[in-house]
Amino acid sequence: MPTVNLVFLAAFRDVAGTDRTTVEAATPRAALAQLGILDALVAQTPIVAVNQRICDLDTALSSGDEVALMPPMTGG
Questions:
Q1: Residues 51-69: pLDDT tens digits?
Q2: What is the distance between the alpha carbons of residues 53 and 61, in angstroms, rounded to a whole number?
Q3: C-alpha–C-alpha distance, residues 49 and 68, integer Å
Q4: Residue 57 neighbours by CB under 8 Å, 6+ apart
Q5: 48: closest CA among 22, 24, 66?
Q6: Beta-bridge mates of residue 4
Q7: Does the pTM exceed 0.85?
Q8: In 3D, which of 37, 42, 13 has the Cα closest to residue 25?
Q9: How far is CA 31 from CA 9, 10, 37, 42, in A?
Q10: Is 76 within 8 Å of 47 (Cβ atoms)?
């Protein structure tokens, strides 16, 4: 199982209780499930980036990857 670094941005810091953590997980979805926050984040339609590239929750991860999770942006 790859060891990955999760980074929580904006309001997701409050949901996660931290701005970053390290977990062992094969996908971003598995990482969030392991932390017990998958449902809370999915309900807010997160933008997921792996190594600064936008992807989805089921993207395969490799050891050392950085997974950033941020709320969708809105403008007005």
A1: 999 999 999 999 999 999 9
A2: 12
A3: 5
A4: 27, 28, 29, 32, 42, 46, 48
A5: 66
A6: 23
A7: yes
A8: 37
A9: 16, 19, 9, 13
A10: no
